[in-house]
Design a protein that fits this description.
This protein is an alpha/beta fold. The protein is built from 13 helices and 14 strands. The chain has helices at residues 29-41, 48-61, 72-82, 100-107, 127-133, 153-163, 214-224, 232-236, 256-286, 320-329, 345-349, 357-362, 377-390; strands spanning 65-69, 90-94, 111-115, 117-119, 122-125, 138-144, 166-170, 178-179, 182-183, 190-194, 207-211, 293-294, 310-314, 366-369. The N and C termini lie far apart (53 Å). Bound molecules: pyridoxal-5'-phosphate (PLP).
Length: 391
């Protein structure tokens, strides 16, 4: 009898087998070879592959520095700390966002101030409401590029200039997206990316901070690894013999195995984003005449979306749960991006919330459809048919 567990005898329940999952990862020989090569090198944490990934990512985005970290949440946390956010400060962000941005603002001691979205055809933050939310205590704006569609960076940068604020781009959805010809993440003072398994550049876990501000880059490198002035890798190579500690840092380093996967994924990113765009166009065509659902408007001229999410907005009065249940019964997995942060108990309890009428009207009507580069034509048709039938 073999003691090795096989897939059949493992006690863990099998994951539901969707006909069309919400997202999926690619697994192939090139990726496996890169992973095995890193594994066999015997150097498993920050080393030459992390350095190569950082260099390639900085040049891809068009920033001077890229600092790899353990995940996108750590990227936001360190970016906010290095931007000087702390107790007494307010940081403005859209409530229609993943909760990590608000949590990390709180971790710095600052207060998150939630703003509305523009409209049901533009799910990025509202410029008018952003302006209304700025006070004398505001220090920074966390600008999410929702679904990979660039936020209105011209207006955001102008408000930041007028009020002396730091712009942190939450580019978790937007690797490869472009605002007026510039890559998202390189436009504000600092940009944050996530490489979680369902993102456009999936690595399991991982994150990146990009900036062209040398002082912020230096501070982030220190915060990433305990506030220590040298890395184990530098000492291993004989480039340093000791270290000093000049800040109270964390350990949110990236490992070599992930960086090896990341380098392969980065080489594929533009092509995979283009395929995502084709799939979104198929959804757009299929529902162009529908009075029951709409898709957010295409990006403005000169901008390019990374197409992280395929989101539809239901007409008011259509029960979202019923539609999602009907899709699930046909084997189609859906999601919601996002339950607004200001409505979670923790943030409701945290106090005064500004009125966010558009977010509150739209958020309960959003459904995220499956979207990943390896979706087949049959899978696209299956989603379209099932949604048409459910409406
Ligand atoms: C995924 C995501 C994060 C968090 O990234 P992790 O890598 O999962 O920590 C933060 N903000 C947004 C908008 C995200 O989509």
């Amino acid at each position: 009898m073999s003691a090795v567990q096989t897939r059949q005898d493992t006690a863990a329940p099998a994951a539901p087998t969707w006909v069309v999952p919400l997202s999926d990862v690619e697994i192939d020989d090139e990726m496996e070879a890169a992973l095995v090569e890193a594994f066999r090198s015997g150097w498993w944490s920050m080393g030459p592959r992390v350095a190569a990934f950082e260099e390639a990512f900085a040049s891809f985005v068009g920033a001077t520095s890229a600092i790899a970290v353990a995940n996108g949440t750590a990227a936001l946390h360190l970016a906010l700390l290095a931007s000087g956010c702390g107790p007494g400060d307010e940081v403005v962000l859209p409530s229609l966002n993943f909760v990590a941005a608000a949590n990390t603002i709180r971790h710095t001691g600052a207060t998150p101030v939630f703003v509305d979205i523009e409209s049901e055809s533009d799910l990025n933050l509202s410029i008018g409401d952003l302006e209304a939310a700025i006070t004398s205590r505001t220090r920074a704006i966390v600008a999410l590029h929702y679904g990979g569609a660039p936020a209105r960076m011209d207006a955001i940068l102008e408000l930041a200039r007028t009020h002396g604020l730091v712009v942190v781009e939450d580019a978790a959805h937007a690797p490869g997206a472009e605002w007026q010809g510039r890559r998202c993440g390189s436009i504000g003072k600092v940009g944050c990316f996530s490489f979680f398994s369902n993102k456009n550049l999936p690595m399991g876990e991982g994150g990146m901070i990009v900036t062209s501000d040398e002082e912020i880059a230096r501070r982030i490198r220190l915060l990433r690894s305990h506030g220590m002035t040298t890395l184990t890798w530098d000492r291993h190579r004989g480039h340093a013999h000791s270290y000093d500690v000049v800040d109270e840092g964390f350990n949110v380093r990236m490992d070599e195995l992930r960086a090896a996967i990341g380098l392969v994924q980065l080489g594929r990113l533009s092509e995979r984003n283009a395929r995502r765009g084709e799939i979104v166009e198929r959804y757009r065509d299929a529902f162009a005449g529908s009075d029951a659902v709409s898709l957010p408007a295409p990006t403005r001229a000169g901008d390019r979306s990374a197409h992280h999410l395929a989101v539809v907005v239901l007409r008011e009065g259509i029960p979202r749960d019923d539609v999602r249940t009907a899709l699930a019964s046909r084997g189609i997995q859906t999601s919601m991006h996002y339950p607004p942060i200001h409505q979670f108990s923790h943030y409701r309890a945290a106090g005064a919330v500004r009125p966010l009428p558009v977010t509150e009207s739209v958020a309960g009507r959003l459904i995220t459809l499956p979207l990943y580069p390896t979706m087949t034509d049959d899978q696209i048709i299956a989603v379209v048919d099932a949604l048409q039938e459910a409406l």
